[in-house]
């Protein structure tokens, strides 16, 4: 039993991190629902649910094998590993989905989600975290990305750029002369709730990526990772608010929340590597 204890602890920790990451699903949904116009709220919520369901299923049935090869783990239950990685894939799709709110329909978005979660994202994971089919070739990548600043957020961002180039701008976003028309958020409390749910989920996102909680060293690494993650979010919010105040003489809550989320994205690559002050930068 004593030899099995680290295995059990790591499994429980991965499952706990999975639950925290799943909080990001309603987080994205609330954030997007609060930002879009009232008439589109129901559609946005439905898209978030369907994207999560289809993307997760595509990764389970197809994507995981492309990314990592066979199921298996020596340090924890292989099924905990599958769940943890499955929680990640929805975030890639959410990044793209959130950027094209009010401009897409359920069928094409679902098809794209399946392709992204089943093939495109798993290939990126394979090259970085997974089986690495590029190993030993001139294309082999040498990089450190603990929880996906590049693997998840950059991949989602490039997918979003491609979608925007195809779909175009939101209706009513620009004036006939080319000026930008501000579309106010429909529900600020929902935006705030969504941002904080994402913030909470990030602790599982980054902390869970350390991969173990079965020793003093591993516990210290997890605690440092979560501390630095939180610090980056705090710094992002403070800096965004300060810039707004200096430039516009007022503070906009959506920009402050965007600043916090930007800080969380930025720290995701290496929160386990920095001292407690570096994330402020």
Question: Secondary-structure blueprint of this entry?
Answer:
Layout: H1 5-22, H2 24-35, H3 41-68, H4 78-99, H5 106-128, H6 149-167, H7 188-209, H8 216-248, H9 253-267
Short structural description:
This protein is 68% helix and 0% strand.
What can you see in these coordinates?
- Helices cover 68% and strands 0% of the residues.
- It is built from nine helices and no strands.
- The chain is an all-alpha fold.
- It starts with a helix and ends in a 14-residue tail after the last helix.
- The longest helix has 33 residues.
- It has one domain: Ammonium transporter fold (Orthogonal Bundle), CATH 1.10.3430.10.
- The chain is globular, with a radius of gyration of 19 Å.
- α3 crosses α4, α3 runs parallel beside α5 and α4 packs across α5.
- 40% of the residues are buried.
- The model has no long low-confidence stretch (mean pLDDT 93).
Q: Briefly, what CATH class? A: Mainly Alpha
Assign the CATH superfamily.
Ammonium transporter AmtB like domains
Strand content: under 5%
Query: What is the terminal separation in angstroms?
Result: 45 Å
Strand tally, please? 0
Helix share of residues?
55-70%
Helix count, DSSP H or I runs of 4 or more residues: 9
Give the number of domains: 1
Mean pLDDT: 93
Proper CATH architecture = Orthogonal Bundle
Overall structural class, as computed from helix and strand content, comes to mainly alpha
Please tag this protein with its features.
281 residues, mainly alpha, Ammonium transporter fold, 68% helix, 0% strand, globular
């Amino acid at each position: 039993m004593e030899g099995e204890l680290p295995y059990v602890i790591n499994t429980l920790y991965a499952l706990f991190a999975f639950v925290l990451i799943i909080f990001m699903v309603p987080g994205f949904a609330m954030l997007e629902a609060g930002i879009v116009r009232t008439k589109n709220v129901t559609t946005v919520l439905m898209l978030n649910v369907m994207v999560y369901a289809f993307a997760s299923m595509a990764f389970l049935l197809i994507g995981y094998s492309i990314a990592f090869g066979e199921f298996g783990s020596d340090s924890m239950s292989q099924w905990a590993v599958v769940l943890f990685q499955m929680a990640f894939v929805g975030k890639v799709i959410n990044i793209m989905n959130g950027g094209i709110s009010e401009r897409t329909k359920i069928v094409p978005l679902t098809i794209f989600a399946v392709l992204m979660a089943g093939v495109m994202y798993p290939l990126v994971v394979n090259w970085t975290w997974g089986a690495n089919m590029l190993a030993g070739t001139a294309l082999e990548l040498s990089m450190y990305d603990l929880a996906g600043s590049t693997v998840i957020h950059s991949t989602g961002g490039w997918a979003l750029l491609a979608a925007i180039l195809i779909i175009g701008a939101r209706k009513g976003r620009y004036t006939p002369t080319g000026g930008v028309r501000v579309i106010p958020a429909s529900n600020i409390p929902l935006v705030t709730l969504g941002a904080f749910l994402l913030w909470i989920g990030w602790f599982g996102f980054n902390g869970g990526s350390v991969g173990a909680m079965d020793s003093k060293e591993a516990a210290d690494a997890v605690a440092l990772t979560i501390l630095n993650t939180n610090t980056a979010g705090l710094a992002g919010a403070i800096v965004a608010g300060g810039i707004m105040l200096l430039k516009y003489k007022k503070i906009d809550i959506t920009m402050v929340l965007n600043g916090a989320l930007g800080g969380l994205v930025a720290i995701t690559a290496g929160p386990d590597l920095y001292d407690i002050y570096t994330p402020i930068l």
